[in-house]
Design a protein that fits this description.
With about 90 residues, this protein is an alpha+beta fold. The protein has one domain (about 1-85). It is built from one helix and four strands.
Length: about 90
């Protein structure tokens, strides 16, 4: 499974690691997680909130494939369907 969550960040957090998501009106970061069928976390990527889920998913899925070649099916939020990822 693949999904992301927003984490609000204060002004003291460096601008290089946080961003503004106009859709959710949140300034902060996003956690992108890849989990196994039992919901155990296999991989986490943290990006600025402005990062597009579909673009980050490409990198996350690539890294998951390298680490866990046994997985053949991915369940993901509809936002990941952009760019033909899932």
């Amino acid at each position: 499974m693949q999904d992301s969550q927003y984490v609000k960040a204060s002004e003291t957090v460096g601008k290089a690691t946080r961003g503004w998501d106009g859709g959710k009106l949140i300034s902060g970061r996003k956690r992108h997680m890849g989990c196994d069928p039992r919901s155990l976390v296999l991989l986490v990527m943290v990006t600025p909130a402005v990062a597009q889920d579909s673009l980050v998913a490409r990198e996350l899925l690539f890294r998951l494939a390298l680490l866990h070649a046994e997985f053949a099916i991915v369940w993901a939020d509809s936002a990941y369907a952009k760019n033909g990822l899932v």
